[in-house]
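Lab notebook: predicted structure, single chain.

Context: the supervisor wants predicted structures on file for every construct in the current expression panel, including those that have not yet been purified. This is the next one on the list. No modifications to the sequence; it matches the entry in the shared construct table.
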Amino acid sequence: MPLQKNLRTLLLLALIAAGNAFSAPAAGDMAPDEFGKTIKGEAPKLADYAGKVVVVSFWATWCGYCLKELPILEGIQKTAKGQVQVIAVNTEPRDEFKGIERALRTLTMKLTYDPDQKGAKAYGVKGIPHLVIIGKDGKIVEVHRGYGETTLPQIVDAINLAIAAPAP
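Prediction complete. Output recorded below exactly as produced.
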């Protein structure tokens, strides 16, 4: 009996450890370097935006709030005058993204899609909207999951704090 109990305990600990290994990154963690790719096949990297606050938004065309959020994020990026880079990661197949990407070409934010869900997995996306604020040092400042308009002031405050933080 003691051997069976020890084996069960070891199995349980192994399962817990495995679950923790695949947990979503949180505030204070280094941000994953996976943001999907542009329609041209380019894969942006966090190093491309060194010294800037990066706001990553995972979205889809069927998400009404996501579509309302994109112009707001664009406004934040423009208002921040080079201090913030928004990367909007579409979670749909390439054809869906290609259609909407044409309509959004006037936006200055980086538009990508995540065809193999590498970015979504790296950031622990389980649903959308899903927004991650990354500081100038490459560490995650805040993660927002399934939020709405009432959360916007908190998101803006977090972005402003990240902008005000000293560069590494």
